[in-house]
Specification:
mainly alpha; 12 helices; single chain; about 425 residues
């Protein structure tokens, strides 16, 4: 039974990774099914949760079908605030991609509720199917709402602040969704090399089959990324209220449509952010972004300083100073409004892969999303249980340890009648 079809409005939250501008759905707590394989304690975890074995090689995991981003810190030692900003947002983008992949992979295999079950049928199976579809819809709704809120805050506050910090006219870095989409379209057109006629025919077919005039107007007005996220939010609001209306192929089509603009945008932003380093003369960090900035080191072209000499302070107009302030706001511990704390914070915790995202820092407070060990205990023991049925579909436990996706390739549930969509 769904608790309410008219969920209350949520006050705005603060922080790039926790702000939600869409209302959370009510959700009942469904017990998480027993794992398919025995849990093991590797001695490295915290709290009551036991480590799950890593993703099985024969089953898909949340690092595909849409690829994750290689964070700058995995390629080089980062010291400059511009590099730290790019690294921070790469982690957030990877969390979004894991959520997208996990939802897409499991969508075809969620048990399908029956609109009119037979009186002699096993009603426990029907209740389980209703719960699975409602929980899965709740997860997709929460994920899309967080992505939309993150995107909105970045477009309206973070990107303008970065342009201003570098002394550039608005939009100069080309970080907006419209700018990255235009760049991708131009690159695709340049690479077509005589295939323009076929591409034009493909586009016409897509327009005729998949887009209505109303949707095109929405995308023109508010942007393709925002419009497609709102369609997922609207669809999952409906299927959460009425689980029998859940359609795997319908949700997958919405996800594929979103991925067409979201995935290239998330990947394109990271090298664009790294370009900010060219506007900064000297690095200001030697370790984690949350530590106090150390004096800048001289540029490679300058003469070396004598041992133990005091480094010159950064120039007042050095963009590194302004970028440092922006970075500190991005790396502050997440804060969520009380009404959304039990949705946003568990979502973020379960989308972090500590084996990939801690940058060698041991998964502590300096690792995205910058939750302390006590905060993670609170997420595990107090915030996750109200919507535990939804978090079972996520790819990591609350401590960031990868685990199998329970409904990937239909394991644990019967596949729907509709075919699996490939990308």
């Amino acid at each position: 039974m769904i608790l309410s079809r008219s969920p209350p409005a949520v006050p705005a939250a603060h922080g790039i990774d926790t702000l939600l501008d869409a209302r959370p759905l009510p959700s009942k707590a469904h017990p998480i099914p027993a794992p398919r394989r025995p849990t093991v304690d590797n001695g490295k975890g915290k709290g009551k949760e036991k480590a799950q074995p890593g993703p099985a090689v024969e089953r898909p995991w949340a690092d595909g079908p849409w690829p994750l981003i290689e964070t700058p810190s995995r390629r080089q030692h980062i010291t400059q605030p511009a590099q730290h900003i790019a690294n921070e947002l790469a982690h957030a983008h990877n969390a979004m991609l894991r959520g997208l992949n996990a939802i897409f992979l499991q969508a075809p295999y969620i048990p399908l509720p029956r609109p009119h079950p037979h009186p002699q049928d096993d009603h426990d199976d029907d209740d389980d199917a209703d719960a699975a579809a409602a929980d899965f819809s709740f997860l997709a709704h929460t994920w899309a709402s967080w992505v939309l809120a993150h995107h909105t805050l970045k477009e309206t506050a973070v990107i303008p602040a970065l342009d201003a910090a570098l002394g550039l006219p608005p939009g100069s870095l080309g970080l907006s969704a419209r700018a990255t989409a235009a760049a991708a379209a131009a690159a695709a057109a340049a690479d077509s090399n005589g295939d323009s006629e076929r591409a034009r025919n493909d586009n016409n077919n897509n327009n005729n089959n998949n887009k209505e005039e109303e949707e095109e107007e929405e995308e023109e007005k508010e942007g393709p990324l925002e419009a497609r996220l709102r369609r997922i939010i609207a669809y999952t609001t409906s299927t959460h209220a009425q689980p029998t209306t859940y359609s795997p192929s319908a949700l997958q089509r919405l996800l594929v449509s979103l991925a067409e603009v979201l995935v290239p945008h998330l990947h394109a932003q990271i090298p664009l952010l790294l370009r900010m380093h060219d506007f900064c003369s000297t690095p200001t960090f030697s370790s984690s972004p949350t530590s106090s900035p150390s004096p800048p080191s001289p540029s490679p072209s300058s003469s070396p300083s004598p041992p133990h000499s005091k480094q010159p302070p950064p120039k007042p107009d050095d963009p590194s100073i302004a970028l440092t302030h922006i970075l500190r706001s991005l790396t502050a511990p997440p804060q969520a409004a009380p009404a959304s704390a039990s949705t946003v914070l568990p979502l973020l915790a379960h989308l972090r892969d500590a084996t990939r995202d801690d940058d060698g820092g041991g998964g502590g407070v300096n690792a995205w999303p910058h939750m302390s060990v006590p905060a993670l205990h609170a997420v595990a023991e107090r915030l996750s249980p109200p919507h535990a049925g939804a978090w079972r579909f996520l790819p990591c436990d609350v401590w960031g340890r990868p685990r199998d996706l329970p409904y990937a390739f239909g394991d644990g549930g019967r596949a729907g009648e509709e075919g699996v969509m490939r990308v």
